[in-house]
């Protein structure tokens, strides 16, 4: 928006008063009274009127700029210390506890070579599982040393049990110009399940087999 001198802003307010706050009429009257000046649009009159009614003056509002966070040693220690103390902490929690922006925290953490890594899920071990697993792996290594094609004679298999569940209504639509109150009869009281088994032997896929009565 163009910066108008204080004298011109005052004349705009007086013109608005004469025109009973009609911005369109005020812009025309102002152009007739001050033809040598820059002619503001009606929207400019509206903005000045709104500002005058809020603040009681025609001075321009000072822009408030947010200062960037000073990355001194204390700030860096606070952010990096939070990560070292709890590697699972989120940047959102650090931001709330330190009152620093997440972008600032993310940048500092990366500058100190800290990067987010995804966790891997693994099966929990019980009792002698670790010792038994180690013994089995040593046995496999011995078999591979005796026969390089040992795994071609090993059958790897897995199975999964599927159960009936509710229908996902997002996958069913009934297009009509009026609501037909459509419904679908469900047999939720009749429970069923099916086992699916499959295996791999060498370079061959075995199955899948559907075992309904198990």
UniProtKB/TrEMBL annotation:
Domain DUF4817, chain residue ranges per copy: 7-59
GO MF terms, alphabetically ordered: nucleic acid binding
Any Pfam family matching the protein: DUF4817
Record's keyword terms, sorted: Membrane, Transmembrane, Transmembrane helix
Transmembrane segments: 192-211
Keyword Secreted among UniProt keywords: no
InterPro entries: DUF4817 (IPR032135), RNaseH_sf (IPR036397)
Keyword tRNA-binding part of the UniProt annotation: no
Protein name (record): DUF4817 domain-containing protein
Organism: Dendroctonus ponderosae (Mountain pine beetle)
Taxonomic lineage from the root: Eukaryota, Metazoa, Ecdysozoa, Arthropoda, Hexapoda
């Amino acid at each position: 928006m163009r910066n108008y001198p204080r004298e011109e802003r005052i004349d705009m307010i007086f013109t608005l008063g004469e025109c009973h706050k009609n911005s369109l009429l005020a812009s025309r009257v102002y152009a007739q009274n001050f033809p040598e000046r820059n002619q503001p649009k009606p929207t400019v009159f509206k903005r000045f009127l709104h500002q005058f009614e809020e603040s009681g003056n025609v001075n321009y509002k000072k822009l408030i700029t947010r200062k960037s966070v000073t990355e001194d040693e204390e700030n860096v220690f606070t952010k990096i210390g939070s990560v070292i103390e709890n590697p699972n902490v989120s940047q959102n929690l650090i931001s709330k506890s330190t009152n620093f922006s997440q972008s600032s925290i993310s940048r500092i953490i990366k500058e100190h070579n800290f990067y987010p890594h995804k966790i891997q899920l693994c099966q929990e071990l019980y009792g002698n599982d670790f010792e038994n697993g180690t013994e089995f792996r040593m046995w496999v290594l011995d078999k591979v040393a005796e026969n390089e094609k040992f795994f071609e004679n090993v059958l790897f298999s897995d199975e999964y049990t599927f159960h009936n569940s509710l229908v996902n209504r997002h996958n069913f639509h009934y297009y009509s110009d009026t609501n037909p109150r459509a419904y679908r009869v469900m047999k939720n009281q009749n429970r069923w399940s099916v086992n699916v088994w499959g295996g791999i032997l060498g370079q061959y896929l075995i199955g899948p087999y559907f075992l309904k009565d198990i």
